[in-house]
Amino acid sequence: MDDRSHGDGHRPGGGPGDAALLLLADSRLPAGGHAHSGGAEEAVRLGTITDAGDLARFLRGRLATAGLVTAALAAAACELARTGHHPGREEDLATLWRQLDAEADARTASPAQREAGRTQGRLLLRTARRMWPSPALDTLGVAVPEGAHHPVVLGAAAAAAGCVPYQAALAAAYTAVTGPATAAVRLLGLDPVTVHRLLADLAPALNDAAHAACASLIDSVVTDDADPLAVDPCGDDRRRPPGGIGPDGDDATSSPEPGSAPGAGPCRGAGWPALPGHAAPALDLLAEGHLKNAMKLFVS
Amino acid sequence: MGAIHDDLHEAAAPGGRALRLGIGGPVGSGKTALVAALCRTLGPSLRLGVVTNDIYTTEDADFLRRAGVIDPERIMAVQTGCCPHTAIRDDIAANLDAVETLEERFGPLDLVIVESGGDNLTATFSRGLADRQIFVLDVSGGDKVPRKGGPGVTSADLLVINKTDLAPLVGADLTVMSRDAAAVREGRPVLFTSIREDKSAHSVAEWAAEMVAAWWHQHGPAGHAHEHPHGHPDGHPHHEDDPEPAVLPAGRE
Asked: What phi and psi values does residue A171 have, to the nearest 5 degrees?
């Protein structure tokens, strides 16, 4: 292994979290994601999704609402995990994990979706703790024993894997659309290449969602710290035109040193209510309807 | 699901937890009937839990509940997202979660049975999920199936060939099946059953009880409160120091 790969220094072509991001976003990650359809199964049952065109609209809507919200929560969780752990102050971090999880809860109107999100989070934490052991993940497990919401765990796992918040947001946005897309392939027998073309078309929107998530995170940190932009919590500058994945190689300030970011104390969460809260009532109703379907093949 | 977990650590160390027995096989071969039979036969002497994986979610669990062979609370159903083999092999997270939930709620348990959704001949359980596994075929698929092999047929700790009562009706030659299975299984055991005729699946239950006894012998019994827990369908208790159960196959360890 190249010893330059240690630490947070970035090299041309990407950062240390790039490969970890691929693992985290891979549908083969053994964390239970394959059994969640994100509402697609119920939409198929109701005839809302019957073909690739319907699916494309469904995915765009999902990305613009639930996808953006989960991306922002994942970015916030990643930032917290990277900077919030201080030996001897685990209880402070646990309090912050509970606060962030409560923010996720407040943004999930459907009880069925909350349940599914916590189940997915619990399974992901189990897997991530074995893949990337870290005190921050341990504290999250203790802080939310019933299972934190999936995007919160995803962000924490991303941090443990070496990713920056932007990458966590990107993984969250990505899984928000790939899960339903794969489910639709299985349920409707759609041409898998046609569906992957849809996903390819969504790629710019995924980047935008991750950037928007980071921008909202910066705004949320602004509200509770005197000098919040001394270190960019997203490891990326929102004023830079979107396009690249992750920090540029020459940007020495793009990634915070663990423990050096602002707002590491328990008051940090004060800004989180400002994170996006885009509602998707149709997805909520799909989740509730799905729960009542005795013939369902997916958990959600 | 939605269990409250106090401890999110990975699976407990082998000592003190139940043996996890996977039961897989094609659709309709009799997996659920076998689970019911094992519960019926082993339930009086072993503390059991059951996890079902079914494409139609609760259908198998409902079958078991109606059979009245186990406390319905001790059955958990897992959805597999149209991919039953994924849930037992490539991504076992949901099944592990269910197993551990049962152990937390009702533990210590002696045996947790994980029944796969019906799948094809290539489906096997991850060793991260199942300590031992049974693959169930039936004769109505034709007597060539064992010859076709596949990981389930060749590598399962026990191959069960069910519905022997149908063999004359479908022209299946049990001798051929036995010979072909033996040829690909390198000495691992094969049992022929007709669960319709033998509701206790006596021979399979005996094998399972011996697996549990061997597990305890290696890892210590699950929990400490169980005085003489050795279940045996005959009612003849094993002794802790039994050197070799009669049909113990080649061990994995």
From this structure: -60, -40
The residue of chain A with its CA nearest to that of B86 is A34
Minimum distance, in Å, between the CA of residue A122 and any CA atom of chain B: 8
Check residue B15 and give its pLDDT.
Answer: 52
Q: Count Cβ atoms below 10 Å from residue B238 Cβ, excluding itself.
A: 18
Q: Which chain A residue has the Cα nearest residue B4?
A: A146
Q: What percent of chain A has pLDDT over 90?
A: 71
In a mutational test of the A interface, the residue from B54, B59, B82 whose CB has the highest number of chain A CBs within 10 Å is B82
- Is B52 annotated to bind a ligand? Reply is no
- In this predicted model, what pLDDT tens digit does every residue of A55-82 receive, in sequence order? 999 999 999 999 999 999 999 999 999 9
What distance in Å separates residue B96's CA from the closest CA in chain A?
Answer: 9
The model's pTM is 0.82
CB contacts < 8 A, A to B, total 89
In sequence order, which residues have a C-beta less than 8 Å from that of residue A2 and are 6 or more positions away?
Answer: none
Which two tokens mark B156?
Answer: 């399962």
Q: What CATH code is assigned to B19-219?
A: 3.40.50.300
pLDDT at position A167: 97
Classify domain A19-282 at the CATH topology level.
Urease accessory protein UreF (1.10.4190)
- Report how far residue A149's alpha carbon sits from residue B156's, in angstroms, rounded to the nearest whole number: 37
Measured in degrees and rounded to the nearest 5, phi and psi for residue A100 equal -65, -40
- What is residue B13's DSSP assignment? P
Map out the domains of chain B as residue ranges: 19-219
Question: Is residue B250 very low, low, confident or very high in pLDDT (cuts 50, 70, 90)?
Answer: very low
Closest CA to B207 of B127, B136, B101: B136
* Complex ipTM value: 0.79
Q: Cα B140 vs. chain centroid, distance in angstroms?
A: 21
User: Per-residue pLDDT tens for B60-74?
Assistant: 777 888 888 899 899
Sign of the four-CA dihedral A29, A31, A33, A35: positive
